[in-house]
Amino acid sequence: MSFPATATRGASSSWWWSNVQRTDDVAQNHRRHRKRHLYRNEARRRRRPPATRNVASSSSRGAEEGRSSDAEEDDAFSVCVLGCGPAGLTTALAIQKLVVPTKETRVVLFDKNPNAMDGNLGGGFNINGGAAVLEKLGVYDEVFSENANKLRGVLSRRCDKDRTRLFDVDVEEEVRSDFLLNAKELLVNKKSGEVMAGTVMRADLNKGLREVLNEETCEVELGCEIVSVNAESGEIELRRKDGTAETRRFDLIVGADGIDSLARKCVVKSNRSSSSSSSSKNNNNDYNNSNESDRSGRSGSTSSLEEPIYSGIKILFGVTGVDDKPEDLIRDVSEQTTAHQWFGDGAYSLVFTGGGENKKRHNLAFCSNEPLGSANSNPSWRANSLVTKEYAHNKMMKANMPADVLRICLRCERFFEIGVFFHEPLDTWSSPSGKVVLVGDAAHAMPPFLGQGANQAMQDAYVLAKCLSTFGPDIKDPNTRNEALQSYSNTRRPPTEAIMNASRFVGALETGKGPVSLFRDVAFFVAGTFGITGKIFLSGAMPRL
Questions:
Q1: pTM for this structure?
Q2: What is the dihedral of CA 291, 297, 299, 303, to 10 degrees?
Q3: Eight-state DSSP code of residue 127
Q4: What is the Cα–Cα distance from 265 to 288, expressed in whole angstroms?
Q5: CATH homologous superfamily for 24-120+206-289+426-493?
């Protein structure tokens, strides 16, 4: 039983909008006055989004500045976040809100996609536990309420002439009537009293998150490819589009760089080297792109823990334009708060609406059991020009999808065809040195069939910041920081592993062929009759913080 979600990817899969160019003089002046700004009265502090520098088009810094050490500049706690998606942006926000070391915390976010802030990048997904995180961080109204379409139900049917109903989930009723999981406390907004469940567009969510970051202590740099991460020194080497390189050092590197995560490879390698007591510093601690094998999840020379694995399922994803013309509605208003699923033999489709008032778009996900072919994980969420409307329509017709689905397909303005990948679980999400830690898909990329990828990533971000904040000013001490990272990993690994395994099973069941599809339909009908499907939805939606 799938619920609205994007296909598996990561925060490098991250995402949009116009970038403000910063000259070197402005950047130097900003650093010179940064401390003075921090100690201004809070009521006078300006709360503007961080300046975004597209380093692909900005002038390069000199070699001396390029080699400077952020971590040694002063007593500040410096954090580098790799990836500007929901995982990375929520991590930066949570650290700003919760972590208050000796003097100040500075965060720099990098993303290799120069168009990562583009307003039309990617599709939509379901937010519930992630909305609970936004409430705790004090930005629920401006980030979630402004950008979400309420999700009130899920309706699932067979692709037969009778449109046989398999199950339906009343989200509101499941939350408000719960007495086992404490949903009424954790998934009901304390201010408005509304159930925190909705569907958002990826670009809208990221824009909202970016706007609430405090520019005084946060910087966003786009168009930077991270070519190496050193787990011992905390150094990263980045390369710009013009070929210039720079090395920077941080107290902590947060890998929110998605399913093809370089930080993950660094963490796996550093833990493996530590356990084998290797004597080579480079082999122990440094990982760069030259170490990588095939990223498709197929055979390679590196450990299966480092590389994503193809699930055997592909998703053809379509997104419509904004549905703002009452005389020509793409999807009836009465259906926009319900996600519709249609199950066929070896495939199924999901239709849902995402976005806030006056910016609602409809999303179509067609999932099928088939070889990977030329598709990949598409971590940058770029529309695929080879996937035409005709191609998508014909593929869904062959799978006997109903007219409702085909009509939405013909109104889509962009398409993505992606392979669904996942990662095998890790024993720990941080390096032995306490310099590198993982969040989101970099830590636990999972199939999207329970709609929990972004939700779990945002919960990772909150718990990480909470664990770091526990130690206050001592967090700059490597031993103390390592203790905080282990506490974070121990808190978040069990629930994400359980959801990952459940998602893999549900995806295989939902796209099964022949006897498997018949068993699926009977199982879903029985589960729906006894209210089990609603409990499954609620179990995944519950925040584990």
A1: 0.86
A2: 50
A3: E
A4: 9
A5: FAD/NAD(P)-binding domain (3.50.50.60)
